[in-house]
Amino acid sequence: MKKYYIILxxxxxxxxxxxxxxxxxxxxKTTLHIIPSKTDATTAEGIIAPNLTRAQLIxxxxxxxxxxxxxxxxxxxxxGTVSTKTAKITEIGYYYFDGSLWQPFSSSTPVVPTEPWRxxxxxxxxxxxxxxxxxxxKVVIGxxxxxxxxxxxxxxxxxxxxxxxxxxxxxxxxGNETVGGTLAVTGATTLSGTLGVAGATTIAxxxxxxxxGNGAAANKYxxxxxxxxxxxxxxxxxxxxxxxxxxQGGTTQxxxxxxxxxxxxKVVIGxxxxxxxxxxxxxxxxxxxxxxxxxxxxxxxxGNQTIGGTLAVTGATxxxxxxxxxxxGNGAAAGKYxxxxxxxxxxxxxxxTYPTVPTEPWQxQGGTTxxxxxxxxIYQTGSVGIGASTAVPAAxxxxxxxxxxxxxxxxxxxxxxxxxxTVGTTLGVTGATTLSSTLGVAGATTIAxxxxxxxxGNGAAASRYxxxxxxxxxxxxALPTTATTxxxxxQGGTTLxxxxxxxIYQTGSVxxxxxxxxxxxxxxxxxxxxxxxxxxxxxxxxxxxTVGTTLGVTGATTLxxTLGVTGxxxxxxxxxxxxxxxxxxxAPTQKLHVVGNEYVSGLGKFGGATTLNASAQLELGDTxxxxxxxxxxxxxxxxxxxxxxxxxxxxxxxxxxxxxxxxSPGFYYWRGTTWTRLVDVIPQTTxxxxxxxxxxxSTVGDVTTLATKGVVLPFGDLVxxxxxxxxxxxxxxxxxxxxxxxxxxxxxGNVKTARTVIFYIGLxxxxxxxxxxxxxxxxxxxxxxxxxxxxxxxxxxxxxxxDRITFRxxxxxxxxxxxxxxxxxxxxxxxxxxxxxxxx
Length: 840
Description:
The protein is 3% helix and 30% strand. The protein has 840 residues and is mainly beta.
């Protein structure tokens, strides 16, 4: 009982002097600081909070208010009628008061949240990311679920990249789309905006192309304006326009491009039918080039004509008085005449002398005068053949046998081209042209905005439209007498879509790249690449997808393969990934595998219930796992390495033992300038034993010179030449108990009388004398003039973690008896100098 009274008296003294309470310590560091009274197995240590049953605590309800915030109790029994303040007391254990409720320190019953994702085809909650799952609600990625995002099933705000194949349900693209590379479409596609394709676009032979809006309706056909823009054109219920071209030899209207056809009126190519063009049967405005055989009927050429090959003329050809005919080379010289050889090749030749001049068959146009110069405009009423001596067929007036090349402008009357024609460069047509066979153009063909294009035969008839077969061959197609119903309707009603500027919808399936959509509302067969923004309803992506810019998903999306994002991906709602996710690594081995730095804002939790604690930035929730911090080997209590950039509060687990530094395996945190042990249990070692590393002999001095002189006692680690020190592991008060052992011998070797010899021992903290003691040893000289002495002394000091403690020894100059402290390893433990030290 006396012991307890002394402790209570001491406690009250601390309260009075320090305003802090220390139990078993004279230097309390906090409001209440408790040091174990003993560290052996003889006593129980700890703090016991007030023990109450729940009923007892309920009876005290009125005593607890905001002034009692933080009060701690221990409930020993669950009884009594629960009150508002004790509603959460459901089991025995510790509780604290938060100002309104008693809160448990922990709960043994984990809260398991309801999993919102279900396994496809059932209502089973998903438990693994390898399952096929679905979500019946809306999913928003990269934005808050407000505005447009709140109305979409899958909404993605930001750029997305789909690198593989995609299958998308029925959808409407409301903005403009730009495809930078190749767009391969295997099914039907509906675009309500603009599709800009910078590269090549291929529609497979098994696919189709749909242009929404732009006047689209059932049984309409695509017609372009001057800029090439296509518009679906409304057709009359019955054909009203008669086909102007007739089958040769009768009055039957032409219906196919394989028929031989004719036109009784005038045909103009490359110009409006006005002026000169209105008076010609066939008028071509611009340069024409005919590289194959041509047969031309009676015609008047008003301009210069150059024919690079053979021109066969079956009728009369007239060169106007304002025109001329020139054959360069071929012996051309003044006063020569054109003579042909057996093949019909003309050469300028001097005329031979004839007995009589033959009659000139060519006559000057407008009369019967025989032509005399090649500058005259001439005519021939008979047939003219070029390239062969055979008679020109009766059906022709002008025939060219062999290839002909017209390099300048040509004007041709109504004509039928019977054979195939190939134009190697540009074909300029100013009037109407009828082709009954094939026209092959190896270069570019341009039809001016003032001209027109006519394909004779091939089913040509009035009010027909051009349709291609699988090879691209065009055929004039007869239209049904009754227009079919337009399948696309204007959004918001049942009005048929009539233009490509309308917002339209389709309740059936749409397929691109194949003739069936399978079980989907919208199917693209083949790879698709969307480089602009897209918005997709609830969908399942089977293959890898790449989206070059933004992918907007407003409903639920399941990815069974890879999602590659080359730009910024923003998700404002849930994202389910059934495989591994890698950041900074192409082959992740974990569900989330990050290589590089990462930053997470907000609250974080690992395991346990999904409910987050609003005051915990990081929470660990599993009840069967622990926290494994970084394991490092510290080398010094005052050196950060190997944690080079350690800051206050950083915790590590030390695996190394450095006795002189007071370091042992356990948890440490960096505080100011030192590693401080995070003590949550009684330290394994509370007292440290050190032996003198080597023998030393005292030097002459007194207590005033201990700070700079005197022999250094080699306890601890060597920190500089001849200097040994102990490094304090943490802040606090320390005690050092020395057992000094060794012989004392008179300096001069002379036998002295028995007497008391004075020694001084000092404790230096960072080279500053902190404590000292005077030792008086009774010397009784023997025959060898020495006395072996053993003496104990205790020194103490206050210090900071990292302080270096050294010790020095003097003998007083008036009594010149040096003390040689023993540290020989041959001595027993009892016959050597040692020291024990501990933190108070």
